[in-house]
Design goal:
homodimer, four-stranded antiparallel sheet, alpha/beta, 14 helices
């Protein structure tokens, strides 16, 4: 009842403040608890924020550009903190400088793996809501559903130039392609880095290949010669409304070329759009890793392919920032640079569990609490560190707000992303969330509220099945406690009940399936053969 | 043969450079391997260093003051790195500023526990060489032997004012007392913080007391009423040549008072000696921790007594630096601030294994690789990070060099400490060591060379008994490897052989035993009774 009264009050306050857009987005239940407590205050602050943004727009003649750089599988601490460079034996001077000139997040939560985090960023929703909770491998035959409204679509509505380069990993079906999901132009990888790096016979490079080489059919006991995914597509390009074209077939050599090709595409887009009347949104999610040692030179003290790749990533991020400065637009551009999830701990030349325990696929902090930085010269206070909880899907809602595009966010579904513009404008302590629901695959694995974390799944049945952690006292989740946290049992149960009730009201979209590699005009013969096999499977079960 | 020829060459180069002092110190074998490779270069650099130091002396009219602040049991990362403050939920702004204005060490190695590290710093030698390899508890009846030459003795010879305040933990026998080991003035604790914090019945404060309360003798089955150490001494004070006086008897309340008393003594010493003709050496090794929650207020997000104590330590270090600046002597004072070993992981309100695995008492990095900072305004380049290996016993030799007191370092024993003045003057990459031998108690537990670490003890017998680690690739020592490091088997064996040969030539001093609490003029009756009991044990075995 109190909440209804407050909602009504907020409605009228909203009208008064001429800022109703933010109010009618359907957020997850937990956010309503916060709005109930802070709605009036936030509405006031929003008015101030609008003034600031309008002043900036007046100064630069357009809304701010947005550059979202996101790379794979990286522990918090591996980049952007000078001391760690010495501990790990490789250098990231450009990301360290980004932290000094901009903002470092210490509680940026993502989904625990690539495809889900990318889907969450694109849709502003927990990946489970769009059915995008698994990691795509060829042939996935699934991908981001057309009905999902991406940030590219939202910003396009508001008049932004939009581009996507490098690793989408949003599936291999036609509707999922980036140019079919709102981007004006795109060149992107359908899957992750492992197929081209390790699946092919490339001399020494085949060192890690298990079960997938060209001459496999000559081996003993092989009957089915079509079972392995020989004909998959690594990378395609297209403009909005066009059919896609495969760029380079998947080989280690081509993958290595693509890393530089994507980087150059991103730089070129910035050069082409810097002086444009319209602002731009660039999603550049680079394929960082080449964990195949063959043919690489190793110049770091660390000596691993991982470290070598980190130094290249650092240079690449630096080049993007340099280009923005060179074009004179760094004061009207918000740059986000972040990892998409924790380190892949089982990979060859493994990434590393540095500050937190757990890695990719894991609901522990190491899987979901990532390196993340923001820079916006003249707007973000240099050297800011953010202790607030921030979720990767908040970027969706925040980008929309910055672009004046909040009204294009759909109102018929749950949007988990919160408008966090205040964090960028006012700094630490300004987050409008203090919770995060962690999913692994389709399972609700844990819930974080403030400094506390409760795990919903796992191996301990009965009363003590649920691990509780205090993330300040125990950031590595070493000592799950029960008795000390019994006070939090009820409050966490309430959170889950609210969340489950909302999920029931707004059901998850089932994972979308289709024949892979649709809409690609230059399919290779082996890809066509492969598609036919998959099609038969899907259509007839034969 | 090559080495002998080079040594001869160095001898003559040394004479030419008028800097023979550094050459004839007896270092551990490993250092000779380095001198063989870099001796000529270092001799040249030493000449430059002498010029620099002379210029400073001319400018300030005396040698530099030295302040060595060293606290207990603290993980690398807990202080001095801003981002970690947000992860851990407490703030250390003053140590963070120290890192920004001065130097952060990322590979400062100590011994794995309090007493040994303090002995190593005082003597410039691995603690095992002075028999100081265990942690003293009442009644220890042992301590630092008189024949050990401490840094206070060395610097006194060179005309320094010297003072020691707070936690010595160098034993409870008369010859071990700080004022008997070269310090002009001293007030110090004989043991660590646990006896006064947890051994006494102080209402709620007794929460952690196990087996030691005043009314213990009234309990069932107690026969021996003298067995528990009721009469021990917490803290004494004296000037050089005087008998000692107990300050406050051991209670929680008195311990809490002493933390501030020691801080004030340190500040007062700086005030008194700032304008003195002679430079000063202040060893201020504060009793940081009060892990008894009773009666404390908790203002941090972290909420533990540990975090609360960290914030007080940070303020206290800040006050010392402020006082040096206020007195106008920060440009002629080298300040070292560091922990003495890793976190006590089993303590109540536990410290935390943050960046490295392992804690106090452990040969893993978490036990021995500590938070450490240096500041020397105008000399140390602000914001320097040091990736070099630096050992706590290097401070001994380096302080001596800075004081022009190298000639007072004894030449009849192994001095493990290397002169690392170049690190403070020239920054990263200037260390004259790339190795460290790790002892736990009397055992040689591991050897570190460059980024590699080999463990000599442990539970795996046979070929694979020895864990090898690459500390860049695996700073947490999670994945001990063998096959990958078989190339390092021989080189590490050689290191150990050289080290063992030197140990044979210069045998370790056995742990020195005596009756505790000698030379204290105001012994309480219960202390006297207690001493008599111990004396009878030692003298007659009855």
């Amino acid at each position: 009842m109190k909440q209804i009264r407050l909602s009504l009050l907020l409605f009228f306050v909203g009208i008064l403040l001429n800022n109703v857009n933010a109010q009618d987005i359907i957020h997850d239940a937990e956010q309503n608890i916060l709005i109930d407590q802070y709605g009036v205050e936030w509405a006031k602050q929003d008015k101030e924020i609008d003034k600031k943004l309008k002043a900036l727009e007046k100064k630069y003649g357009k809304k701010p550009n947005i550059v979202h750089i996101m790379w794979d599988d990286n522990s918090f601490g591996e980049v952007g903190i000078k001391e760690f460079n010495y501990i790990r034996g490789f250098k990231t001077p450009r990301l360290n400088t980004m932290a000094e000139e901009g903002m470092t997040f210490t509680r940026m939560y993502t989904e625990p793996s690539c495809t889900p985090t990318r889907a969450a960023c694109l849709t502003g929703r927990l990946a489970v809501r769009s059915g995008m909770y698994t990691v795509a491998f060829p042939p996935e035959g699934s991908g981001l559903p057309a009905e999902e409204v991406t940030i590219a679509e939202v910003l396009s509505e508001a008049g932004y130039n939009t581009a996507f380069f490098a690793k989408a990993h949003q599936g291999d079906i036609e509707e999922s392609y980036m140019h079919n999901q709102g981007f004006d132009e795109a060149q992107f990888s359908l899957y992750n880095q492992f197929p081209p790096i390790f699946w092919h016979e490339t001399g020494e490079a085949g060192q890690m290949t298990v079960g997938y080489t060209k001459n496999m059919t000559e081996k003993e006991y092989i009957v089915d010669q079509t079972w392995r995914p020989y004909g998959y597509i690594m990378d395609i390009e297209a403009k909005k409304g066009e059919k896609a074209r495969e760029t380079l077939p998947p080989t280690l050599e081509n993958y290595r070329k693509l890393i530089d090709v994507h980087q150059e595409k991103a730089l070129d887009f910035i050069r082409r759009k810097a002086k444009d009347d319209k602002p731009f949104y660039l999603a550049y999610w680079p394929n960082v890793y080449d964990l195949n040692r063959s043919g690489q030179e190793f110049t770091t003290s660390n000596g691993t392919a991982f470290a070598q790749n980190m130094e290249r990533l650092d240079r690449h991020v630096g080049e993007i920032i340099d280009e923005l400065k060179k074009q004179g637009i760094s004061e009207n551009t918000l740059i986000i640079a972040m990892a998409d999830n924790g380190p892949m701990t089982e990979a060859p030349q493994a990434m590393y569990q540095n500050v937190f325990n757990g890695g990719k696929g894991d609901y522990r902090e190491g899987g979901i609490r990532v390196a993340a930085f923001a820079q916006w010269d003249g707007v973000i206070e240099p050297g800011t560190v953010i202790g607030d909880i921030f979720a990767c899907h908040d970027l969706f809602t925040t980008f929309a707000r910055l672009a004046g595009a909040t009204k294009y966010i759909p109102r018929d579904r749950i949007i988990d992303g919160i408008d966090q513009t205040a964090v960028f404008l006012y700094g630490d302590g300004q987050s409008r969330r203090d919770y995060y629901h962690v999913y692994t695959g389709p399972y609700h694995a844990a819930t974080i509220k403030q400094q506390y974390k409760r795990v919903w799944i796992g191996g301990r049945p009965g009363l003590v099945k649920n691990d509780f952690y205090d993330l300040y006292a125990d950031p590595r989740e070493m000592r799950g406690m029960m008795a000390q946290f019994l006070w939090a049992w009820g409050p966490f149960d309430m959170m889950k009940k609210r969340h489950d009730a909302m999920n029931k009201k707004y059901p998850f979209t089932p994972t979308r399936h289709d024949v892979p590699f649709g809409g690609i005009e230059n399919l290779r013969p082996e890809s066509k053969t492969y598609v036919e096999t998959v099609k038969r499977t899907m259509e007839t079960g034969k």
